[in-house]
Amino acid sequence: MEQITLAKQTTRLKDCHSNKVIDTLAKGLIILGIKGDKAPSDPELAYMLNMLQKDYGNLPIGELDLAFELMAKNKLDENPETYQNFSVLYLSRMMGAYARYVRVNWVEPKQEVKQLEQPKLDNKEMFDFALDIYKKSKDKRFDSIFMALDVFKYILKNNLMEFNYSEIYNLTLNKLKERIIDRESKNKINEILRDEDQLENMCRRMAVKIYFDSL
What we know:
Order of helices and strands: HHHHHHHHHH
Oligomer: single chain
Strand content: under 5%
Structural class: mainly alpha
Shape: globular
């Protein structure tokens, strides 16, 4: 099955940045119809993230996307109904059902395959969901905003706010440096500061936080 083959070409969960995995979970919640106060709490999401990256660490993130899609389409051998309660147990059952589905429907191809294209969601729905999750969160960390990079693009495309990029850059640097408490944290922050792409994405996440806080 081509969908599975393409999904297997994506990055393994254990090698993905935690924000990317959380964003994939958030998209899955939308697909399954979990919104508003029915969405998992921050501690629940943190537990799910840890479980996925440890217990399912070798699974490509594209297959997590696909598992949500197949579950929503009732293609797996588990009841897709969430009863507005997306729990760790539901996630485990879904992943188990997906594994059984793959064993029956997929044979590893010999030829090279194309990279999986990420499923597209309605931009306004994505924006509203990310904002709702942010408003309910307690710490409101700029680097843990759901789908922040997509939200940033949405803000720019719709001219929702004009950003002072110099101010955002300095604020991002200060917030990152505040997290240095030991050698390990210092090394992690320095890694981000040396990587232009990571730092730019952090600045974009900060821009989203500034916009969300203004609402």
